[in-house]
Amino acid sequence: DAGVTQSPTHLIKTRGQQVTLRCSPISGHKSVSWYQQVLGQGPQFIFQYYEKEERGRGNFPDRFSARQFPNYSSELNVNALLLGDSALYLCASSLDARSSYEQYFGPGTRLTVT
Amino acid sequence: GNSVTQMEGPVTLSEEAFLTINCTYTATGYPSLFWYVQYPGEGLQLLLKATKADDKGSNKGFEATYRKETTSFHLEKGSVQVSDSAVYFCALIPRGGSYIPTFGRGTSLIVHP
User: Fold this and answer.
1) Which terminus in chain A has less CB density within 10 A, N or C?
2) Chain A residue whose CA is closest to B90
3) Judging by beta carbons within 10 Å of its beta carbon (0-12, 13-18, 19+), is residue B37 exposed, middle or buried?
């Protein structure tokens, strides 16, 4: 089975622009989470979606938004990009949103804001 | 709030040496605990997990035991290989509530031949 896929792999944007990142979960997984990983740090939780509903939101500004589609794929949108948004954005899927279910991560999208 | 503390890296070892990477956590109740590994330029891969006290997670020669008394989940391997060089992340997912995961900062492991 295919793992979690993310697109694009790399992205370069200018301050003030908007970006959309995409994620396809493992087949059968209904929960998708988004993380921001700044160089040298652990992943920081942004959003979790389960069955198309937001189940959790981390400490990120309203410039960050996401949604989940009927096929369980997901998009992360970031508006009014800042230099500090440069990071690796990771998507993870799991069967369920509960704590006992491990998450499987995609390879990430490397976003550079100039 | 919840937190995960990992030992500072990098940890530098010779091949076949014993590995310990310390991880302690702060959380309400009894969270599920995980170790992930990240190779250069890649996303995170689940290494092992434990969902209740005294559970031992194991995979590829790595082990970690959920210690409720010391709120710890230290990662160990008896004999490391050069291919184990990577960054290791300890993480928790709380039970109940929002299930928001918390990751540690990561510990870099460098194994020399």
Assistant:
1) N
2) A42
3) buried
Environment class of A28 (CB within 10 Å of its CB; exposed 0-12, middle 13-18, buried 19+): exposed
Partner residue opposite B46 with nearest CB, options A99, A102, A106:
A102
In a mutational test of the B interface, the residue from A88, A89, A99, A100 whose CB has the highest number of chain B CBs within 10 Å is A99
Tokens representing residue B14 in the block: 């010779």
The pLDDT of residue A100 is above 60: no
Distance from CA of A113 to the nearest CA of B (A): 18
> Do the chains contact at B43 and A105, CB–CB below 8 Å?
yes
List phi, psi (to 5°) of A69: -95, 165
Classify residue B85 as exposed, middle or buried by CB count within 10 Å of its CB (0-12, 13-18, 19+): middle
B73 token code pair = 């989940």
Chain B interface residues facing chain A, Cβ-Cβ under 8 Å?
A: 4, 31-32, 34, 36, 42-46, 49, 51, 89, 91, 93-96, 98-106
Q: Which residue has the higher pLDDT, A1 or A98?
A: A98
List pLDDT tens digits, range B21-33. Answer: 999 999 988 899 9
pLDDT at res. B9:
87
Q: How far, in Å, CA of B57 to CA of B37, rounded?
A: 14
| Mean pLDDT along residues A21-35 | 95
Put simply, the answer to whether A55 touches B99 (Cβ < 8 Å) is yes
Low-confidence residues of chain B: pLDDT under 70: 97-98
pLDDT, tens digit, 9 for 90 and up, residues B78-93:
999 999 999 999 999 8
